[in-house]
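Researcher: Structure prediction, please.
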Amino acid sequence: RDDSKAASLAEKLFRAFGRRITSIELIPSHGGVFEVEYNGELIFSKKEKGRFPEEGEVEAKIESALEAPNG
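Model: Predicted structure follows.
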């Protein structure tokens, strides 16, 4: 289910980034929507891509955002 995938991803993100991220919010939805935002910016959308994120895909995008000057 999407809920368990979202919870699993949240756990992975906390393990990967520790205190570098301060919160993760899971918002239940319907219709196959699975989106990940970082600092208000959409970094992954299942609706746009037609698939769930691949292993490490979201982590890599967050890492890039953290390394950016405004991260």
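Model: The longest helix spans residues 2-17.
Researcher: Thanks, that helps.
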